[in-house]
């Protein structure tokens, strides 16, 4: 979610409401391990799908991260007792195998940076 917010700030700082939305999502997760607010950002009018394209690879990375965050949040709410670290590994594996993401090399780079915890620092290098 931090990277989603960062990409949005860099590419569309005028969408302050979305940046604030993601900031709340980050706080909800950090403080309470809560995902309900974040999951409301998917589907329907005014959802992530209504945001304009991001610049360059940011568009692809943003879409990839949206899918990852949704999968994680959706499963986290349904699988009581699973550790976030294990769920993250499962989601990264599943989304890395998804055929609807055609850029396998970029997928691997995003996944590796997520696993290492340094995606934020490497966004512009990708």
Short recap of the structure:
It is built from seven helices and no strands. It has helices at 2-11, 16-32, 36-39, 57-78, 84-97, 104-116, 119-122.
Task: Summarize the structure in words.
67% of the residues lie in helices and 0% in strands. The protein contains 7 helices and no strands. Helix 1 packs antiparallel against helix 2. It is an all-alpha fold and 126 residues long. The model has no long low-confidence stretch (mean pLDDT 90).
Topology summary:
Elements lengths: L1 H10 L4 H17 L3 H4 L17 H22 L5 H14 L6 H13 L2 H4 L4
Helix pairs in contact: 1-2, 1-4, 4-5, 5-6
Helices, by number, come to 7
Topology order in helix (H) and strand (E) letters: HHHHHHH
Query: How does the helix and strand content classify structurally?
Result: mainly alpha
Count of β-strands: 0
How big a fraction of the residues is strand? under 5%
Global shape: globular
Q: How is the biggest beta sheet arranged?
A: none
Instruction: Classify the helix fraction into a percent range.
Output: 55-70%
Name its key features.
globular; mainly alpha; 0% strand; 126 residues; 7 helices
């Amino acid at each position: 979610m931090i990277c989603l917010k960062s990409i949005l700030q860099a590419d569309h700082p005028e969408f302050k409401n979305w940046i604030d939305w993601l900031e709340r999502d980050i706080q909800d997760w950090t403080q309470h391990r809560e995902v309900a607010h974040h999951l409301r950002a998917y589907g329907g009018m005014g959802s992530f799908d209504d945001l304009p394209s991001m610049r360059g690879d940011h568009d692809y990375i943003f879409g990839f991260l949206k899918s990852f965050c949704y999968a994680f949040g959706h499963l986290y709410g349904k699988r009581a007792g699973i550790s976030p670290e294990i769920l993250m590994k499962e989601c990264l594996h599943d989304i890395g195998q998804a055929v609807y993401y055609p850029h396998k090399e970029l997928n691997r780079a995003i996944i590796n940076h997520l696993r290492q915890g340094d995606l934020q620092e490497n966004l512009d290098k990708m």
